[in-house]
Amino acid sequence: MSTNIEWTDQTENIIRAKEGGWWCHKKSEGCTNCYAEKLNKNSFFGGNKQPYSGQPPELVLDTEAIRKWGFQRKPKKHFVSSMTDVFGEWVPRFWQHEMLDGMFVAPNQIFQILTKRPEIMLSSMDEWLSCHGLDKLPLNIWPGTSIENRRTLEERSQFLAQIPALIRFWSVEPLLEDLGDITQYLNDVQLVIVGGESGPNSRPCHIEWLESIVQQCHAAKTPVFVKQLGANAIFGGQRFKTRNKKGGDIEEFPQELQVREFPVPVRE
Prior knowledge:
This protein is an alpha/beta fold. The chain has a single domain, classed as pyruvate-formate lyase- activating enzyme. It has six helices and twelve strands. The chain has helices at residues 35-40, 63-69, 93-104, 118-132, 150-161, 207-220, and strands spanning 10-11, 15-17, 59-61, 77-79, 110-115, 141-146, 169-172, 191-195, 205-206, 224-228, 233-235, 238-239. The strands form three sheets. It has a seven-stranded parallel beta sheet. Helix 4 (118-132) links the parallel strand 5 (110-115) and strand 6. It is globular. InterPro entries: DUF5131. This is Bacteriophage protein gp37. It comes from Nostoc flagelliforme CCNUN1.
């Protein structure tokens, strides 16, 4: 499915609720204003009106969508999945492995897998690699983790760093506080995506926080992609107003934040 997410080409939600919509379970501070939950609560967007809490409904894996990856000719970046966490503790391990199998036979496609549970991702991917006799993930599989504050940076980056992949990434969105010195972590990541929160009741994102991350990524020669300033951007203690409601128009960014880089895959 085509998407407005700037750092990918399309999204594919391979795990859905059997009766329609999706489901996930909120994990941390970044989930407070979850856009996926808002969409799921609205039947107009195909949701089932269920909150992302409590017990999951009956779920299904879209095996046909996975099968089609191997037949796609035009190279694209695929974000799998935007409406849930495929490494949630409620997801059967063999579903995760079936997903990875589908990615393995589609080497011309890039798959961006984002989780707030990198400890599960690490365990599941290690099992999959062992089953296939591999020592690292194929170049086209990019594991990533969400980071929103210093706590999640410390907790999640250590697990992501252990995943044997050529390209690992962070999605630092929504950025909820100054991450401080991230230099020690940047050797273990090949892409940092960063952005402020959008939507109603957006929490503030200080442009100085974004600038710090970009400067440190440049110093470490780590590709960085500034997705958006957010709907409640602050600069110099004052509201930084943009015409774009989520602060996503790169032409409205301060000059030093007008950067959208990707890693150049290099086969070992």
